[in-house]
Amino acid sequence: MQRLATWLKENRVTEVECVVSDLTGIVRGKISPTDKFLYERGMHLPESVLLQTVTGDWVDDDIYYSLLDPADIDMVCHPDPDAVFLLPWTAEPTAQVIHDTYNRDGKPIELSPRNVLKKVLSLYQEKGWKPIVAPEMEFYLTKRSDDPDVPLQPPIGRSGRPETGRQSFSIEAANEFDPLFEDMYDWCEYQGLEIDTLIHEEGTAQMEINFLHGDPLALADHVQVFKRTMREAAMKHGVLATFMAKPITNEPGSAMHLHQSIVDAQTGLNIFSNEDGSMSDLFRHHVGGMQRYLPEFLLLLAPNVNSFRRFLPDTSAPVNVAWGHANRTCGLRIPESDSQNQRLENRLAGADANSYLAIAASLLCGYIGMVEKIEPSEPCTGRAYDLDDYELPVTIESAVEQLEESAAARKYLGDAFIDGYAAVKRAEHENFKRVISSWEREFLLLSV
């Protein structure tokens, strides 16, 4: 707390946003004057916020009261001094401080997404391994809209015209929003977010930001902060930024591609490479674990009903967990690199995924493969969309069932987390099924 207090005073921070991530990735917490924050040394929040759905509803009572204290007690939230970010869009100097959550006995809360990732990282630590990740975040810019029944439209750029057609890797199309992206880069630098390349992706007004590689926990924090930063920068310039997995009909979906590798904690050498630069047995087993277990953990990478609209052939999204060298049709791609940068790119996670849970699931599947010495399939050298092997769940209902029935998920992440997460997703899907879509009105109203 002393280090944190010094930092807050040096930056003349007057307000602190004390935050945790819920299962969806929504930031929840309290806003406190700096002096009160330092006096209280953290905050208390109802543990029940971790069982709240994206619509603000709650899971069924039988699950709610089986996982939480019947008295609906608070969890104890301690600030992480390494997860502090100045907010450049506020009128008064304000910092966002990410907290870790504990029960009254000082044990980590199992439902906390950040604690789930820390649990997975501890498995690697016990083996003397250190994971390295680099997320790539895709998103769309759109016009503002207050009617959810109206399809999203591309925004107006500097030219005064909306973008038309597909402009993959177009510099001029990206430059249409230069003032917005200049603010975004400035704000990210102000917060210490280590972002790298800006790319115009395949979709209309679809962009991608790449993060520099680093520690998985820090990068999960940075992705969460970046999403909020990008939305704030877009709103300042009169448009919206969305990280929905499939926000626009007939346009490509948005992913959170995860590049991951493992180094020896003592030597810093990449354990995915042999001395001659070839794939090590540990790398092969890491890939094998991803193939074997990712279908069971897919709900952590594709958490919403909209997520599954992205998994379509020929739409720059995978439909299975085939792997291949430099093959973008595969769910698991091995990019071209030197031996020290040997890595795997997991292309399954959607941009809508909770960064803590997506990174945790991706690393955990690889870890299980390494400890169980699971052999992968032969690499795919052609079009992976045509393969029938290693298929994924195709609906959120089947993904929920596979996670609930996964012995590996329960072994490593615990029954409380699996039951709570599945219950939240079931509650969200029940809410979704009550809504009548425009497709139903258009094609069924006068036809059936």
Automatic annotation (TrEMBL):
Domain GS catalytic: 113-448
UniProt-listed Pfam families: Gln-synt_C
Ranges of residues in domain GS beta-grasp: 14-106
Cofactor: Mg(2+)
PROSITE patterns xref list: GLNA_ATP, GS_BETA_GRASP, GS_CATALYTIC
Transmembrane segments: none
GO molecular function: ATP binding; glutamine synthetase activity
Entries under SMART domains matching the protein: Gln-synt_C (SM01230)
InterPro entries to which the protein is assigned, alphabetical: Gln_synt_N (IPR008147), Gln_synt_N_sf (IPR036651), Gln_synth/guanido_kin_cat_dom (IPR014746), Gln_synth_cat_dom (IPR008146), Gln_synth_gly_rich_site (IPR027303)
Gene Ontology BP terms: glutamine biosynthetic process; polyamine catabolic process
Keywords: ATP-binding, Ligase, Magnesium, Nucleotide-binding
Family the entry assigns: Belongs to the glutamine synthetase family.
Record's protein name: L-glutamine synthetase
